[in-house]
Amino acid sequence: MTPQQLIGVGVRLFATWLAMSSITYLVAIPDQLSNSPGLADGANAVSYAIAVAYLLGALILWFFPMVIAHRLIPKTQHDNRLSFQAQELARVGCGLMGLWVFAKTLPTLTWFFFRAFLVAGSTSSYSTVDPQAKLDIAVAAFELAFAVVLIVKAGTFAKIVVPMSPAPPVSDDL
Q: Do residues 151 and 97 make contact, with C-beta atoms less than 8 angstroms apart?
């Protein structure tokens, strides 16, 4: 594995994070804007435009990681190899990204359970939450599920990020 390939794996993992970040701009922010009086009418359009830009950036990064890697690190000889396996590095990266998303999402769900404990009486805890908080909880639950999949199935996701390539033929000309 060359240094450029290592950077390419990181670029693909960043593309995944960027796509996950666009969900907030597609779902949660437009709902907050529609419930806030006095905001400009085009605020939802701006939120959707940001989400589309994130998704386009994620697609470009996903499909062209080596172009970016070669821009960041100049091409070297093919004998400049690192002793890491690409799939193992991708697996570690997926696990770390899953832990990060998990840690980022957990406070939102903890807030809901803490609030449910304090406010809950004889009614459902979910019914006491306002619609905006319900949407935040739904987004957090989706992100938490994605984080668990990244952690538990890091090997499978790593195979998507770095497809297995056939080994180069070995020469016996020594």
A: no
Q: What is the C-alpha to C-alpha distance for residues 117 and 164, in angstroms, rounded to an integer?
A: 48
Q: Tabulate helix, strand, coil % of the chain (nearest 5).
A: 75, 0, 25
For 129, counting Cβ atoms within 10 Å of its Cβ (0-12 exposed, 13-18 middle, 19+ buried), the class is: middle
60 vs 71: CA distance, rounded Å: 14
| Helix count and strand count (H, E) for the chain | 7, 0
pTM, rounded to two decimals: 0.56
How many Å apart are CA 103 and CA 88, to the nearest integer?
Answer: 23
What does the block give as tokens for 36?
A: 């806030």
Q: Please state, in angstroms and rounded to a whole number, the distance separating the CA atoms of residues 32 and 29.
A: 5
Residue 67 pLDDT grade (very low, low, confident, very high; cuts 50, 70, 90): confident
